[in-house]
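Instructor's aside before we start: the two examples that follow are unrelated to each other. I chose them only because their records fit on one page, so don't look for a connection. First example below.
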Amino acid sequence: MRAHLTDDVDAFLAATGEFLAARPVEHNLMLSLAHQARDEPRPSRWAWVTDIGGAVAGALIQAPATFVATVTPMPAEATRALVEPLVEAAPELPGVNGEAATAARFAGAWASERQVPAHPREGQRLYRLGRLTVPHGVPGGLRRAVANDVDRLVAWREAFADETGMERPAGIDWPAMIARRVREGRFWVWEADGAPVSMAFATPPAAGASRIGAVYTPPDLRGRGYAGACVGHLSAALRDSGAPDCLLYTQLSNPTSNRIYQRLGYEPVAEVLSYRFGGAS
């Protein structure tokens, strides 16, 4: 196995695009981050492994370069091949995220090579939409977010990050990013009685797959079906707009969200683990 590292996202996509597109659900996060990096350049790290015949066996991204790495599922020998050059190129890598077995192997190899602890931080589950069951009878309706919603969405995004422990990479202007995503039509809200009561975000389709995320309902509005209705109707809209695959991630520590999405028709695809390197977890 041979590892390749670059800071050029176009070179990365030229080498790995076919490999990533072959499994658009499992590779969606990496694809969407790579495409985003083309539009919003910032220092990032891109890597892949090829076998003896030159075929891509796995890939890794660190985008931005201060964030944890994300890895695709890959064989054990490919994981080992990635770690050695990354120890030299990115010795302060803060962590890794990916399919459970691959992430665990990477974390173990990294801990051994760098002589630092690797702390398991969070378990997630990747879901793909099967047969959709759209909720009915929930008051309100789905609409795209507009400029007047931005302040509310920024506040909700902060509350979402606090509740979920979501990473906040330094150097990113989150209000500006959310405003830009609203202009692009990527944020949606469920509105009831003339006011937004829940939100969700959807990525542009990458190899036919679109990912829903940042699903949030304020605590005082929960238990009324708003989040399920928001995600269900958004899933239908994405399919109608030409995204055959819809997917999302949930925290395994949140049984409520896992139950809601399964009722909508989302089916488990893979378990995902996140590790942090060095210091306390």
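Example two begins here.
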Amino acid sequence: MPISGESQPVSHAPRRSAPERCQIVVGVTSAQSCLLLSGRVRTLREAGFGVTVVASPGELLSQTARSQDVVALGIPIPRAISPVADILALAKLWWHLRRLKPALTEFSTPKAGLLGTLAAKLCGVPVRVYLLRGLKLETSTGLKHRILLAAERLAASCAHVVLCNSDSLRFKALALGVAPAAKLHLLGEGSSNGVDAERFSPGPSDARNRLSIDQDSPVLGFVGRLTCDKGLPELIEAFDTILLSEPKAHLLLVGWFDESEDALDAKLRARILRHPRVRYTGFVEDTAPYYRAMDLMVLPTWREGFPNAVLEAAATGIPVITTECTGSRDSVVAEVTGLLIPPGYPAAIVEAVLKLLRNPERRRTMGKAARAWVCQHFGNEHVLGLAAAYYKRLLDEAAQKEIRHPAHGFGGSAILAVGTAGESAGACN
């Protein structure tokens, strides 16, 4: 059922009573961002944690609660800077964390990362994780850049651990002084979710038929939010040039016009919707059939944490063209699983696309290498298992520290409760 109103928990109880489980709160800013949590919160629950997901109210939050078998809590958290609404959201987060008494919090996405980790620190949550999924400040300038950088530093200072989505993101965060090296951590090769290599696998698809695309037409694909930071203006400009050489080509845009600060303007939206060779799907729940309809994927992004869409495309056995920017450059093995290009250059997109379209054998070789690489390093069971094991270790270390140096307030009592059955947080095992 959809969530309406403010600070409203979804009626969805954990499988075991709270005292038997280590309580974790996982928070993101918008209900839409719950798409990032698919699999992650279920893995944490199956590892023995009681999980509550916090986000702004919305159907995707309710849907996450149902599909992942966790508890959801709707708290309106504005994406844009809004002092009054931000203070109200902080107060509600603080109140609910005092009520829930979690042993560990994981907040991510810019606003929830700031307000959530700050509220968790004020409440004395024993283990506080800031999951850094990307740096929005990379595409900002001037005063806004300074404000966003200060917010990132504050969020990191309130956390015990800043968990980075990719190696290049960790390097960038260190270079910007977001946090010291000792606080910045990377699990495995990166990614917050990994990829379901069985769901995203090569195979037949009826997507071309449904979209009225000929089977022999070259199809370039894009999956994700249709925004400026994702490089959509450059992609559309490049595609018109590509059509001069490949007039039968189609551009398949699998995603939605996101109402964010980097939203596409009305003129470009209209151009996309009217373009005779562009197919726009809007939001789709299952993207797998659309990857199978592509010959290659293009993500001309300006910033990432670690793009899930690239892993999904690679698992499907298609090469990816993406940029050398933070996060995106970790998602491709250059010249092996795909191509890396500089951001902001439509001509670079044209050159890379035509290079692969004109060499089907190279595309096939790259696609096979991409799937093998993803299966080796980014299977979701592996990636999510690393996160669950890491959180257990953090709780275990915090419990041992609490035994040596008892704290006061709910933080101390919570971590001692976590360790009741096994003398430490290892009781979660």
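The CA atoms of residues 221 and 297 lie 4 Å apart.
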